Every structure is written in C-alpha cells, then in structure tokens.
Amino acid sequence: WFAACTVADRKALDRVVNTTRKFIGCPLPTLEYLYRSRCLARAENILGDSTHPGHP
Q1: Where do the domains of the chain lie?
Q2: Model confidence pLDDT, tens digit, residues 35-47
Q3: Other beta carbons less than 10 A from residue 13's beta carbon
Q4: pTM for the full model?
C-alpha cells in the first residue's frame, strides 16, 4: 500500500507520525523504514520457504 501512495498521501501520513511522536515523546520509525523492513522480511520468508510459489 505504501508504494502506491501519492506524495500528498505520504506527507499526510508523515504528519500523523510526527504528531504522534511529539505527543508520546518517543522517537518513532518512519513509514518508509517500516515499509522497507517489512518488504525485506517478507522476501526473506519467501526465500526460506521452498514450498512457496514465489520461491526461486
């Protein structure tokens, strides 16, 4: 979903994250970082599962 977002959508989501960060007083990962880390984890799971249809 994140890769298909428009620039305006990403800015709006970033505003929500920044507002939340200020409200709770803790650093939060960026949405881009979360997206990339989840994609990488998913790819690693596919590569580790020889029965997965996407496994090479």
Answers
A1: 7-48
A2: 899 999 999 999 9
A3: 15
A4: 0.67
pLDDT band at 20 (very low <50, low <70, confident <90, very high): very high
Lookup: tokens for 25: 């007083």
Single out the residue of 30, 44, 26, 43 nearest to residue 2, CA to CA.
30
Q: What is the token pair recorded at 26?
A: 């803790």
Mapped onto helix, strand or coil, the DSSP state of residue 25 is coil
Token pair for 9: 């959508």
> Tokens at residue 39, please?
């994609």
Interatomic CA distance for residues 33 and 29, integer angstroms: 6
Q: What is the mean pLDDT of residues 19-42?
A: 91
Rounded to an integer, what distance in angstroms lies between the CA atom of residue 48 and that of residue 17?
Answer: 33
